[in-house]
Amino acid sequence: MAGKPILKEPILVWGAGAIGGTIGAFLVRHGHDVVFVDADPAHVRAIAAGRLSIQGPVAAFTAGAPAFTPDAVHGTFRRAILAVKAHHTATAIRQLAPHLAQDGAVVSAQNGLNEIEIANVVGRQRTIGAFVNFGADWQAPGEILFANRGAVVIGELDGVVGERLRAWHALLCDFEPDAVLTEDIFAYLWGKTGYGALLKASAIADMTIAGFIGEPSLRGLNVALVREVLAVAAAEGVAPRGFNGFDPVPFARNDAAGIDASIAAMVAFNAATAKPYSGVWRDLAVRRRPTDSAAQLAPVLAAARRHGIATPTLDRLVALIGAVERGERTIGRPLAEELSGIAEGRPA
Hints:
The protein is 46% helix and 16% strand. The protein is an alpha/beta fold. Strands 5-2-1-6-7-8-11-12 form an 8-stranded mixed sheet, with helices on both faces. Strands 4-3-10-9 form a 4-stranded mixed sheet. Helix 8 (219-235) packs across helix 12, helix 8 packs across helix 14 and helix 13 packs antiparallel against helix 14. The N and C termini lie far apart (58 Å).
């Protein structure tokens, strides 16, 4: 488009899995210079050999670019995208920091409120927030399923919309043409945290996202999970924003009709994707590895404690996921029923 800002420097994508791999591949496809960093040597070799394959109904193509493991990358970059799981943020941002130019910035393309931890390491002025809700899954080294498009939003932590943010927004539009530039990125991040609680609960229930959210007997659980997150957000002075069918306003007001409309819209959105299960479910059921659920919810629960807000359903959700990760419990409907009991105030 006319007047579009151009980022001429190489873009460092740290974490080339579902999120980083998909975004990075599209940037390569649009002619940007991208350098990938990932902890999986086999995945790194595939990308460096030109075998980063994006598959699925949205797009199918193969790309390649320089790729390294964290110990092998060299140089400094003004533009970096951090796209690792939330529980890897502390390690990754410390590995990335020496490669970030003093006048550079890191965009947190992650799930959770990771911008807080990133800013503690590289500074708020070098941290940019981002919100992503597209569907993607890492399948194997060099293979990523891009299942569906979803909301993509970018914003400065202080809300300022300047030349730097506009340039980054233009860059993300090469991946998602409808990407949004916002003055209130934390409103979207907290909104995703509320919605994300539903995805985590669907994982321990061993259900599809649409099936879980649309299950009438689990409606009370869904409402409790969202309302607990929204209560903490309100105490933090944040008014979460909705996306892709999720409308936090009726949940906050306990507006039954509005909640039902939002549930129907979320079910419709998630029923249309080639990724029916959440990423947490995939970690637990397929890859059998620890999830980043506790890390994503840690800032929420910490804020809840500061404000004296009870979060019994979120607390039990984190505990149940941890029990599954340790092999003490098995995902399935009984876990959802147990969590529902907590949401409804029944003793465990």
